[in-house]
Amino acid sequence: MTDTLWAPWRLEYIKSVTGQPTDCFLCDLAQHPEKDAANFVVRRSPFGMLLMNRYPYVNGHLLAAPYRHTPDLPELSAEERADVLELAVVGQQLLTQAMNPQGFNIGINIGRCAGAGVPGHIHTHVVPRWNG
């Protein structure tokens, strides 16, 4: 295991983070289904969407996000939580079929101190993993 995560393709994202409030890109995507292909939205469901991460840690990194802008799990309804989890399951299935990873990290970062890059809009990461 390395001490440093090397992901130079994320530099554009890192430089864009100012700490200032900005528009929520997940809300923008939720409101524009006609732009799904251009925005890498893979699937939509009644309460959320599955999309490719523009600044992935590894190839195949997906996000499952509710349409509703909220920072925390308890603020989502049980239906919304179940729907977003099902999108994560679909993401895992799609990645298994397309990339044959040896494992997955699937998780949610709540709050900036926990690593949330979009702390105001909860989302689930689906990250394929390989040995080595």
UniProtKB/TrEMBL annotation:
Keyword flag Nucleotide-binding: yes
Name under which the protein is recorded: Histidine triad (HIT) protein
Domain (HIT) ranges: 28-132
Entry's transmembrane regions: none
Keywords, ordered alphabetically: Nucleotide-binding
Pfam family, one: HIT
Any GO molecular function: catalytic activity
Coiled coil region boundaries: none
